[in-house]
Amino acid sequence: NAGVTQTPKFQVLKTGQSMTLQCAQDMNHEYMSWYRQDPGMGLRLIHYSVGAGITDQGEVPNGYNVSRSTTEDFPLRLLSAAPSQTSVYFCASSYSRDGAWGYFGPGTRLTVT
Amino acid sequence: SQQGEEDPQALSIQEGENATMNCSYKTSINNLQWYRQNSGRGLVHLILIRSNEREKHSGRLRVTLDTSKKSSSLLITASRAADTASYFCATDAGNNDMRFGAGTRLTVKP
Question: Which residues pair with B17 in a beta bridge?
Answer without folding.
Answer: none
